[in-house]
Write a structure and sequence with these properties.
Layout lengths: L3 E3 L8 H16 L7 E4 L1 H10 L2 H9 L9 H17 L4 H14 L6 E5 L17 E5 L2 H13 L4 H5 L1 H4 L10 E5 L5 E6 L8 E8 L3 H5 L5 E6 L5 E5 L5 E6 L2 E6 L12 H18 L3 E8 L2 E9 L12 H5 L5 H28 L7 H29 L1 H14 L17 H17 L2 H5 L1 H6 L8 H18 L10 H11 L10 H12 L5 H44 L12 H13 L24 E3 L1 E4 L2 E9 L13 E4 L15 E4 L7 H8 L4 E3 L4 H4 L5 E5 L4 E4 L1
Parallel strand pairs: 16-17, 17-18, 18-19
Antiparallel strand pairs: 1-2, 2-5, 3-4, 3-5, 6-7, 6-12, 7-8, 8-9, 10-11, 12-13, 14-21, 15-19, 16-20, 20-21
Helix pairs in contact: 3-4, 4-6, 12-13, 12-21, 13-21, 13-22, 14-21, 15-18, 15-19, 21-22
C-alpha cells in the first residue's frame, strides 16, 4: 500500500495524496530551492486508520448531535476535543504502524529531530482564507513520538478551527482526509517569514525575523524585527527593531524559550546580504507559483532553507461580519497566558473591585434629576469599558483550560476526554463561597423548626424571638456581599423572596457536601506528572496551576463585571422610580437602551418613550413531541427529577429541592440554586459555560447545547438526564 512518499517522488499526479504543502515543497526542491529532507504520509494512510478503527462512524455521530449552524463556539470546541481524543485512544492498525515505522527508519536516523506537520489537500490553495488551521509539532525524535503526533495532525482535520471553516474546506466525513509531512528539523541561527507583497501596500514586500526557531514568531511570544522593502527593486524602505531578549530553541522534549545572548540583544537577526538573499528567494518563489507568496525560511550558517511557501491569503478582504478570525485569536500560547494572568490578577481585577466600590458610594437619592442623568451616563461608560476589557482580556484567558486539556489528553490519553476537568475543580470560586454561606444559613434554621415555619413573617416583622442571632448576622453579611448582584430583581425588599426560598429549600434536605474526590484527583495529578521529567515536569505543574486560575476566573469574571452592571442598574432603577407615572405602560428594553430612555426623560419632562409590547412567554403554546433531546455531555452522571423551567430570574423563587434545572443559560448569579438541583440542562452549550462548571463542582449530571429546551420541556415534566451521553429523556 502506498502510504509513504519521499520528496523526490512527489509530482503533480500525487497532489491529492500528499496535499498542497508537501507538493509545494517538492516543487521548490525540483527547481533548485534548498528544502530540508522530508517524506509524506499520504491521505490513504488516514483513510485506512479511520476505516479500520471505526472512527469514521464515530466522527459522524459527534458532528450530528446538533445542527452545525446552531452550534456556539464552545460547542464546536467541545466536539473537536472529543474527536481529538478519539484519535489518541485508537491504536494505529498493526499493518499501518509497521509501514510507517519502517518508512521513518529508512529516511531518518534514530537521533534525527523532525517536524510533523499537516498537508491537507487544498490547505494552502490560493484564496483559502482558512490556510494554516491545522497542527504542526516541532522537535520530535523516534518512531514512537512521530506516530503519536501523526494521529494528532490527523485529528486536526476536525479541530475547532477547521470546523469553523467547514463549508469552505468542503469537510465531508466520507471524502475528507489529511496527509502529513515528516521533515528533518533545521535548528537555524535565525528564522522568519517573507511576504512578497505586503497585505497593506501592494508596492511593498515585508520580511520578519527572530533569532532561533520560527515558533516564537508564529505563537506571538517573541516580537520580530521587521523590514519593509520596495516590492519591485528590493530597496530597503524601513526597519522596525524589536525588543530582543529571547529566542526559541530545540529542547530535550520539544522547544523552549531561552534568554538571548547579551551580544545579540543590540544586533538585528539579519544583515544586509541576508535580507537580499531572503528577498530574492521569496520573489523567485512568487515567480515559480505565479502569485504573491508567504515564505517561511531559516538560516543554518549562511545556508538559507525554505520551510514553506504558500499564497498570501490575507490579500483577500474578509467579511466584516465574519468573527471566525477573532475566535481563532483566542488560542494562546503558554507564555502569552502567563502574561495575561499577571495582567488580570494584579491589575484588572483589583481595578474592577475598586471601581464597583467607588460607584456604590454615591447616594443616588441625593442627586437631582439632571445629576442622576449624568451619573447614569457615567456608569454606562464605565460598564462599557469593562465589557470591552472582559472580551479583550478575560475571554482569551479561558484558553488556559483548553490548552491544559490538550496537554493532559496528549500525555495521558484518557478514555474520558473531559477527565482533565477533575483536576481543576475545588478552587476558591466566588459562586461556591456564596453557596457555602447559603448552606450555613440553611443549617441554622434546619435545627430550629419554629424559625423555619415562620421565617418570612419573622423577617418581615423583624421578630427576633424565633430567629437565632448568628442567623441574622450571617444573613446581613450575605446580603451585604451578594444580594446586589444575585437578587437584583427584588433588592428593594429587606430580604429578597428568592433568597429566603433558597435557604428554606436547602433546609428541607440534609446538609449538602461537595463530592470528596481528593484522593482520586491526587492520583490523577500524579499520573499526569509522571508523564514528564526534568524541566518539562515543572512546566506541567505550572500549566496545571495556570489552568486552575483560568477555570476559576471563567466563573468569577462575570461576578466582578456584574457588580459594575448592578451599579448601572441601581441608577436606572432610581430614575425609573422617579419616572413611575410616565413609565406605567412601558416595557423596559435592553439595559443600555433603557438607560438612554431614562436619561432623556430625566432631562426632558415632556418626553415619553414609545410603548413597547411586552414579550410573551411562548412556552405554553409550544410543545415538542420528541421524547429524547440530544445535547452535549458536560457533567457525568445519571439523574431523574421533576423539571423546573427557568426563563427569568424570578422563576428561581419557585425552585424546589431535587428538581432538574432547565434553562436557556445559567448566569453566574443564578448558580446559587445548583446545589438544590438534581441535574442541569441548558440550551447554551459548552464545557466552559457557568452552569457546566458549577454542576461538575457539585457532581451533578449536566447536558448543554439542547436546542429549544425551555420550550420542549415544561415545569413539572418528569425528565431523566444522562450526562455521560448528553441525552435528556422526557417522561
Amino acid at each position: 500500500m502506498n502510504w509513504i512518499v519521499t520528496l523526490d517522488n512527489i509530482d503533480s499526479a500525487k497532489l491529492p495524496l500528499v496535499g498542497g504543502k508537501a507538493y509545494a515543497l517538492a516543487y521548490l526542491a525540483r527547481n533548485g530551492f534548498k528544502v530540508p529532507p522530508l517524506v509524506s504520509v499520504t491521505t490513504r494512510a488516514y483513510h485506512h486508520f479511520v476505516s479500520e478503527t471505526g472512527l469514521r462512524e464515530t466522527i459522524a455521530l459527534e458532528l450530528n448531535r446538533k445542527s452545525f449552524a446552531d452550534m456556539r463556539w464552545e460547542e464546536i470546541w467541545d466536539a473537536a476535543l472529543r474527536i481529538r481524543n478519539l484519535f489518541l485512544t485508537k491504536a494505529i492498525p498493526p499493518d499501518l504502524q509497521a509501514a510507517l515505522s519502517e518508512g521513518f527508519s529508512q529516511n531518518f536516523d534514530r537521533q534525527d529531530a523532525v517536524v510533523v506537520r499537516s498537508s491537507a489537500p487544498g490547505e494552502d490553495a490560493a484564496g483559502s482564507s482558512f490556510a494554516g488551521l491545522h497542527e504542526s509539532y516541532v522537535n520530535l525524535k523516534g518512531a514512537k513520538a512521530v506516530l503519536h503526533h501523526i494521529r494528532l495532525v490527523w485529528a486536526s482535520l476536525w479541530s475547532d478551527a477547521a470546523l469553523l471553516y467547514r463549508q469552505e474546506l468542503g469537510l465531508d466525513i466520507e471524502t475528507s482526509a489529511m496527509a502529513v509531512i515528516i521533515q528533518k528539523i533545521v535548528a537555524g541561527r535565525c528564522s522568519g517569514v517573507a511576504f512578497t507583497q505586503s497585505p497593506t501596500d501592494d508596492t511593498q514586500a515585508v520580511i520578519e525575523a527572530v533569532y532561533g526557531l520560527n515558533q516564537g514568531l508564529v505563537d506571538g511570544d517573541i516580537a520580530p524585527d521587521r523590514w519593509t522593502l520596495n516590492r519591485r527593486t528590493g530597496q530597503l524602505l524601513a526597519h522596525s527593531a524589536a525588543k530582543r531578549d529571547a529566542y526559541m530553541a530545540p529542547d530535550s522534549d520539544g522547544i523552549k524559550q531561552r534568554p538571548l545572548a547579551s551580544a545579540l540583544i543590540d544586533q538585528a537577526p539579519l544583515k544586509a546580504n541576508d535580507i537580499k538573499l531572503v528577498f530574492d528567494t521569496a520573489q523567485a518563489s512568487e515567480q515559480l507559483f505565479d502569485s504573491p507568496q508567504d515564505v517561511e525560511w531559516t538560516f543554518e550558517g549562511d545556508m538559507l532553507y525554505v520551510l514553506q511557501s504558500r499564497p498570501i491569503t490575507t490579500l483577500h478582504k474578509q467579511n466584516e461580519k465574519d468573527s471566525r478570525s477573532w475566535y481563532l485569536s483566542l488560542s494562546r500560547s503558554f507564555e502569552n497566558l502567563k502574561s495575561l494572568r499577571q495582567q488580570i490578577e494584579s491589575k484588572l481585577i483589583p481595578e474592577m473591585i475598586a471601581v464597583a466600590a467607588l460607584l456604590a458610594e454615591t447616594q443616588l437619592s441625593d442627586l437631582a434629576n439632571a445629576e442622576l442623568a449624568k451619573e447614569i451616563e457615567h456608569r454606562q461608560s464605565v460598564f462599557k469599558k469593562w465589557v470591552d476589557v472582559y472580551w479583550a482580556e478575560f475571554i482569551p484567558f479561558a484558553h488556559g483550560v483548553r490548552l491544559f486539556g490538550q496537554i493532559y489528553n496528549d500525555a495521558v490519553c484518557p478514555t474520558d476526554p473531559y477527565e482533565f476537568m477533575d483536576l481543576l475543580g475545588a478552587t476558591q470560586m466566588l459562586s461556591l463561597e456564596r453557596n457555602q454561606l447559603l448552606e450555613e444559613l440553611a443549617d441554622i434554621i434546619r435545627q430550629n423548626p419554629a424559625a423555619f415555619a415562620n421565617l418570612e413573617t419573622d423577617l418581615a416583622n423583624d421578630n427576633r424571638s424565633n430567629l437565632d442571632a448568628s442567623f441574622l448576622a450571617k444573613l446581613h453579611d450575605f446580603t451585604a456581599r451578594f444580594s446586589e448582584q444575585t437578587f437584583a430583581t427584588d433588592q428593594k425588599k429587606p430580604f429578597p423572596a428568592i433568597l429566603i426560598n433558597v435557604i428554606k429549600e436547602m433546609a428541607t434536605r440534609p446538609p449538602a457536601a461537595m463530592p470528596d474526590h481528593a484522593n482520586t484527583v491526587e492520583q490523577k495529578i500524579q499520573h499526569f506528572f509522571s508523564k514528564f521529567s526534568g524541566p518539562k515536569l515543572q512546566e506541567a505543574k505550572e500549566m496545571l496551576d495556570l489552568a486552575r486560575a483560568s477555570y476559576q476566573l471563567r466563573d468569577d469574571d462575570n461576578i466582578y463585571l456584574d457588580r459594575i452592571e448592578a451599579c448601572l442598574q441601581a441608577a436606572l432603577d432610581e430614575g425609573s422610580t422617579r419616572l413611575k407615572n410616565r413609565l406605567q405602560k412601558w416595557a423596559i428594553p435592553e439595559l443600555h437602551e433603557a438607560a438612554k430612555e431614562v436619561v432623556r426623560m430625566l432631562r426632558d419632562p415632556h418626553y415619553v418613550p414609545r410603548n413597547q409590547p411586552r414579550t410573551q412567554n411562548k412556552q405554553a403554546s409550544y410543545r415538542l413531541q420528541a421524547r429524547q433531546l440530544i445535547g452535549q455531555p458536560a457533567g457525568p452522571g445519571l439523574a431523574k427529577g421533576s423539571a423546573r423551567v427557568v426563563v427569568s430570574k424570578d422563576d428561581l423563587a419557585e425552585f424546589k429541592n431535587g428538581e432538574v434545572l432547565i434553562c436557556d443559560a445559567v448566569d453566574p448569579n443564578m448558580t446559587f440554586v445548583v446545589p438544590l438541583a438534581s441535574a442541569v440542562v441548558e440550551r447554551r452549550g459548552g464545557m466552559l459555560i457557568h452552569g457546566a462548571i458549577i454542576a461538575r463542582e457539585y457532581g451533578l449530571p449536566c447536558v448543554t447545547g439542547v436546542p429549544d429546551v425551555t420550550r420542549a420541556i415544561r415545569s413539572g415534566d418528569p425528565v431523566t438526564v444522562d450526562g455521560y451521553l448528553g441525552i435528556v429523556t422526557i417522561g
